[in-house]
Amino acid sequence: MNVPTMAEMMAQGKQPEVLFWVGCAGSFDDRAKKITKAFVKLLNKANVEFAVLGTEESCTGDPAKRAGNEFLFQMQAMTNIEVLNAYEVKKIVTACPHCFNTLKNEYPELGGIYEVVHHTELLKSLLDEGRITIEGGKFKGKRITFHDPCYLGRANDVYEAPRDLIKKLDVELVEMKRCKTNGLCCGAGGAQMFKEPEKGTKDINVERTEDAIEVQPNIIATGCPFCNTMMIDGIKATDKEQEIEVLDIAELIANAEDL
Q: In this structure, are 120 and 153 located in the same domain?
């Protein structure tokens, strides 16, 4: 698998087409690493010249900011911005809506001004340009429902790119009652991913998983590593592991292409 770092690219005097911001989940979480690998396979297949920061990448600061530690957020952000600006980065793609939202909407006021796209948006543009093709493959005829990540959908109005990609797989796209602008959070945002839920009658990820189960899908598609974890936990909690699979859109496309 070919994954050059920015440092290696600069040493060769090259500037990549896009910087792939991997994010904490995509780097360290065993489940999310599979999403990272699937996306890299697609980038390689489309001959996209990309690079990662590698060990120079730090957390964007999203969890710190959402948990109320603005000071820590600004420290993390400033460090990242210095690195990005030193490499003269223009365009960033990430598979994490939390990184996407923070880089796109919160870095500019600290001096980090970049074109930031979510991986579903980049894949859609590669498809439109004819650099990748998508066919149903083993997913043909399956029922798939898409769970809108909060920071992708309601925060940034990206609803159609992921759905357009799913439709290309020759599948039946079924919508949950609560979807798009009316979507329900999986329960992991606002740094909740890293703590146990508050006491209550039902965990929010179970409530959201039940929304999905209602439309009887074979697969729940996600576009966020946090959502992915929460929906998988929800499927386990409702004993539906044998019937329903949870996959990121990058994984769906890579698997359909047998990459």
A: no
